[in-house]
Amino acid sequence: VQVVESGGGLVQPGGSLRLSCAVSGFTFSAIPMSWYRQASGKEREFVARITSTGDYVDYADSVKGRFTISRGNAKNTVFLQMNSLKPEDTAVYYCTISGSGYWGQGTQVTVSS
After folding, report:
1. How far lies 46's CA from each of 18, 32, 43, 106, in Å?
2. Torsion over CA of 95, 100, 102 and 106, rounded to 10 degrees?
3. Which pLDDT does position 103 carry in this prediction?
4. What distance, in Å, lies between the first and last C-alpha atoms of the chain?
5. CB neighbour list of residue 29: distance below 8 Å, 6 or more residues apart
6. Which residues, at least 6 apart from 51, have a Cβ–Cβ distance to it below 8 Å?
7. Over the stretch 41-89, which tens digit does the pLDDT of each residue have?
8. Which of 22, 41, 62, 112 is the most buried (most CB within 10 A)?
9. CB count, 10 Å around CB of 11?
10. Residue 77 has what pLDDT?
11. Residue 98 DSSP label
């Protein structure tokens, strides 16, 4: 099983980034997916999740209205579109197969002017 995130980087406050997470070794269309993040010196926290069919999504209050999770089952990929980014969104973002224990290596997102 492989879970690989990409798309992180440095962005100014108010900017946007789109993270991607590619999964292999699982029947992707059958698995729910989640994004978490961990800021330096803090606990890892939930960001967003999506069901296997994409018909239900859920977000942390801190990102509601700014972040959108989606998935492309044909490409075994889940996305996190992040808009109106704030400095407090700075963290390493991780993708996980919900409840499986499989995590990616993370991708750094830095929001700074």
Report:
1. 17, 14, 10, 14
2. 20
3. 95
4. 37
5. 52, 53, 73
6. 32, 57
7. 999 999 999 999 999 999 999 999 999 999 998 889 999 999 999 999 9
8. 22
9. 18
10. 95
11. T
